[in-house]
Input
Amino acid sequence: MKKKIKNKYILEMENVSKTFPGVKALNKVNFNLKAGEVHALVGENGAGKSTLFKILAGAYKKDEGTIILDGNEVEMTSPKHALDLGISVIYQEFNLIPNLSIAENIFIGREPRKHSAFVDFSKLYQDAEFFLEKIGMKKDPKTLVSELSVAEQQMVEIAKSLSFSSKIIVMDEPTSALTKSEKETLFKIIRELKEKNVSIIFISHIIEEVLEISDRVTVLRDGNYVGTLNATDTNPRKIVQMMVGRELKDFYPKIEVKRGEIVLEVKNLTKKSKYEDINFQLHEGEVLGFAGLVGSGKAQVMRGIFGIEPPDSGEVYIKGKKVKTNSLFETIKMKMGFVPEDRRKEGLILSRSVKDNINITKLPLINAYGFVKQKEEEKIANEYCKSLNIRTPNNKEITQNLSGGNQQKIVIAKWLAINPKILILDDPTRGIDVGAKNEIYSLINNLAKEKIGIILISSELPEIINISDRILVMREGKITHEFLRKEATQEKIMQHAALRN
Amino acid sequence: MDFKSIFKSTEFGIFIAFLAICTILSFATPNFLSVYNIFTVMKQVSFIAIISVGMTMVILTAGIDLSVGAVLGLVNVLAALFIKKFGLAPGISTALLCGTFLGFVNGIIIVKWDLPPFIVTLGMMNIARGLALVITKGWPITGLPECFGCLAEGKLIGMPVPVIIMIIVYILGYLFLSRTIWGRYIYASGGNEKATWLSGVNVNKIKVLVYTITGLLSGLAGIMLASRLSQGSPITGTGYELSVIGAVVIGGTDLMGGKGSVLGSLIGASIMGVLANGLVLLNVSAFWQQVILGLVIIIAVAGGSMRRKLSMKGEK
Output
């Protein structure tokens, strides 16, 4: 180990490179961290963020470059080694065991013992309590993790990192599953950790929150280091520009479309303890936004309308005709499409080709006596790859290998193949990079122009406000307000989404 | 399909293994590579191979069918019984219908009560085997008309009839899986059942279909075995389910569903048949044969999973 005399930074990563077969994932990337600093790492999907922090966490080995920790050059050999060096990672998918208690999860694998073979439970709970207190979590350490909300689970992960006396905590997309108030709590904890001289590497897609919480921001693009900025003297536009490598002229393009006849009418839709008395209409060429917090019931209403989880009572009319069976087989026949929130679990067959995924809704129409008309299948796939700009080597590529944005376009393509009258999009830009988001917005515009009625659910308010013609706000299973595009602001929507009058 | 993708396919890897085994055996024993012996092997393989077509479809939907051997046994008995009572053609078709019905019942229970296929078909395995024993009181049914034997022992254009039936079943199975919309749905629902359902595909119908086809093919094999032994015996096909699953798995079909082909299963069944035959020719005891077959299953699956990991690394 070489000694270096540089005390300014507790961590310096210099010229770090990593190559996977066929891909240069990182190319001479620099990253450094001061004590008690929140340093954000941003970039589009595939920019190399996760490769970089996985090298730091000992999950991958770097090909070249140096890592200097507290002035000493180190080489992380395993995740355990990285932990011992004081670096812990809170992954997007938590590493918690649901059927164990908070305390057992924090100290798993290193429970205090008595008589060498038995767990010293009283000490276990005491120690856990100590770390929970540190982050201001008022929960009994005996509580099972399965009984905790996502936000509380995250706090357990943070307590766990502290119990390793970590000096550096990496948080991978920590806010993606949190509500607004939970996010505030997280940010409060982060600020407290800063005071205790813990450094945070903060990874997120949402630029606004990155700027809110971090001191500095490092941008990566295609495995290359683009630059590091002070959060105070930059703005979201500048960062997006650095991430994308070009200026996005109009991030939220919006074309006004004259709205046509009513395509969808929902009357008194009710599902016990999910939503109640939902009434609205959707017109041809209209983009109807649904805003609301997690748990407001907006997603359940859509799943009810489409027929995934049928409602208890109420009626749905498509082009004036009543939907009788509440099943998705019927709504699809009546030309309704649904792009689910979780495209990997519900939208795509990841092991199948682009062509198979696009055509799955179309097969009943392109066969002769059950035999698939392969030329038509080919033609349809190629058409949508071209018109939606799906970037894939060819239509036989397995969808698993495509980026999130291209995967999402495939899910949309599969519904366009049935010539839909109504398209429900449940958080269509979740987890996809900035460039692809922009493309999806343009696509929504084009579909509206083709007189498709579109329902847009989103967790990002700016998206809803800028893309929708009309916005319905939901809270606790009820529609609380209706806005026209020009009236809506984030503050007004939040008032109706979060507050009881 | 271009040359490169053939080279990279799972089936190609197993085919090479198959050729290697054949080459070794033809040097090791003088009789292996004779027309007579090859037809003998193919005939022996045909019963397992025919059911493997159905099992491939079941496993592609991430299911399993443990009842194939027992259904084969029951249909075997019923065929003998019905042929004696109603005559050849009516007897065969009624017995075949019974096999199909048992498969249909498997499927219906699995989708209507939402039960794991493993459990349902395990139950069906016991029921069918039990019924076969009840009907026959444990004794074989003999005295079948002589012409019935042609089905298994006869030859057409120089080939044994079971081999011809097997080839036809494979061609149909291949076309069904790769060219029809139902084939597409089978692969899709095995790859991601929920996403397939959310695309408007009636996944339940597809599941019932694959179990029904498997019942039909098990019945077909049961009738062919009745013809071969010219009797209906309640213990026919005992343990066949494991040979059939073994053939499909050696053939590279993923037990998690969504990946595999009937071509692979045909090669898988052939590997098992050739090995069994070769070991007999080499005078290896029947007990050791079992041990070796077991090893082959594990090695084949390990090889497949290694190939998959390697190719995934290449993609990352």
